[in-house]
Write a structure and sequence with these properties.
About 40% of the residues lie in helices and about 15% in strands. The strands form two sheets. It has an eight-stranded mixed beta sheet, with helices on both faces. Strands 9-10 form a two-stranded antiparallel sheet. α3 runs parallel beside α13 and α10 crosses α11. It has two domains: about 230 residues, Alpha/Beta hydrolase fold, catalytic domain (Rossmann fold), CATH 3.40.50.1820; about 80 residues, no CATH class. The protein has 13 helices and ten strands.
């Protein structure tokens, strides 16, 4: 794996992070959406991605399948998802992305949403895909989705249906991460994500009125921790935000991972704290850490061969996963 060299015009962490938001292509891929019923009476929207020249039909029934788990308030059709699907298809992997509840366009039916430790829905999707396609299955997660995938891999242990997994920009300590994103320019990201979450809460105020949560306080707060304290935690059975963070941080689960897993993180990530459990990752023969001095958050934009930008993390993870199927 070649080391990451940032694009010369995108050297800093915020230039990388914002550049990734606005410079990645979100066109050119055709999606076939399936809506799956969940065991608790809700729905999940799953997107099967056809990359021109390397569609599912062209790759064939024996090609491996790769599942993508997106980040907080993202979806399965974001810029990094497009880059991942292209990286997968170029290496013979059929790509599919799951949308968390409320992230695909449809609002949930159940009185719940999603959170950084919610593994039941990804578990259901991955296990259903494993049953449906008798081929090697891999997965990749970004940011919140990276935390979820690491936690799920730890919960599965040796019973994981995945041949391999990769994560990009995972938080290992959720409490430290939400504290970090409230410092300096990073507050811009926190406010943006908090506004998105509040918008969804407003759509469900009447539905949540009977539940034991302080929606008004959640709407009045200005930080992700405020929202987690008053909404995320009580809505999903945690005592408070601290309990939610402690029980769901992926750092507590990496030691139990038994399937080959690649971890890609940058030291200048403006979303995350200095929380990489290097000793635990090094001690586990199933995990491989690729730590870069630069790269921002879910960014890692390098210079493209023909100008423009190249999604280094997606290309690197795609190549690594392809070698294991």
């Amino acid at each position: 794996m070649s080391p990451f060299v940032p694009h010369p015009l995108l050297r800093g962490p915020h230039a990388q992070t914002l550049g990734a938001k606005f410079l990645r292509s979100e066109t050119g891929i055709h999606f076939r959406r399936e809506t799956w019923d969940t065991p608790d009476g809700d729905i999940l929207e799953v997107d099967f991605a056809d990359v021109p020249g390397r569609t599912w039909a062209q790759l064939g029934d024996r090609a491996p399948v790769g599942v993508l788990l997106h980040g907080l308030e993202g979806c399965a059709r974001t810029g990094y998802a497009h880059a991942t699907y292209r990286a997968f298809a170029a290496r013979g992997i059929r790509p599919v992305g799951m949308n968390y509840r409320s992230c695909g366009g449809a609002m949930p039916r159940a009185q719940r949403m999603y959170h950084a430790g919610e593994t039941s829905d990804p578990r259901y999707v991955i296990e259903r895909l494993a049953d449906r396609f008798d081929v090697p299955l891999v997965a990749i997660g970004f940011s919140l989705g990276a935390n979820i995938l690491l936690k799920l891999q730890g919960e599965w242990g040796a019973e994981s249906p995945l041949a391999a997994a990769a994560v990009v920009s995972p938080p290992f300590d959720l409490a430290a991460g939400v504290a970090r994103i409230e410092r300096g320019f990073s507050k811009v990201y926190s406010r943006y994500l908090t506004r998105r979450l509040k918008g969804k809460l407003r759509l469900r105020l009447e539905e949540f009125a009977e539940l034991d949560l302080d929606a008004a306080a959640g709407l009045a707060g200005s930080t992700l921790r405020d929202f987690d304290e008053h909404v995320t935690a009580p809505l999903h059975g945690f005592e408070d935000a601290a309990d939610y963070y402690a029980r769901c941080s992926s750092g507590s689960f990496v030691g139990a991972i038994r399937t080959p897993t690649l971890v890609i993180r940058s030291l200048d990530d403006p979303f995350l704290a200095e929380d990489v459990p290097r000793a635990a990752l090094a001690a586990n023969p199933a995990t491989e850490l690729l730590l870069s001095a630069h790269g921002g958050h879910v960014a890692f934009l390098a210079r493209g061969r023909r100008g423009g930008v190249r999604s280094w993390a997606e290309d690197t993870a795609g190549a690594w996963l392809a070698e294991r199927v």
